[in-house]
Design goal:
flat; mainly alpha; single chain
Length: 101
């Protein structure tokens, strides 16, 4: 369960950080002003909010408490936690790769 929590947090946090970095790149002359501080605080608080409610959702799942799980899920926008399909490892690549043009 904990790996899925990490994956879901990263899937939320990475796009937020990427968007923030793109905003900084557009500006090109990065200075520490209130706008930059606000952007950083927004990313951190959004990730903290998400993690807090995902942890409550996982606790509700482990305790078989559907009320806690549903309440935390609704705070995240969907009453059921995400489920990611299990993917088997790919076999190793053998031989060489050639292209035909």
């Amino acid at each position: 369960m904990l790996p899925s929590l990490f994956i879901s947090a990263m899937r939320t946090g990475v796009p937020l950080v990427a968007g923030w970095l793109l905003t900084l790149a557009v500006r090109a002359g990065v200075t520490i002003d209130s706008g930059n501080v606000t952007a950083i605080v927004t990313v951190v608080l959004t990730l903290a909010y998400y993690l807090a409610f995902r942890v409550l959702e996982l606790v509700g799942t482990r305790l078989r408490g559907s009320f806690l799980q549903n309440l935390a899920g609704l705070a995240l926008g969907w009453a059921r936690p995400p489920s990611y399909p299990q993917v088997d490892a790919l076999p190793p690549v053998t031989g060489t790769y050639t292209t035909t043009s």
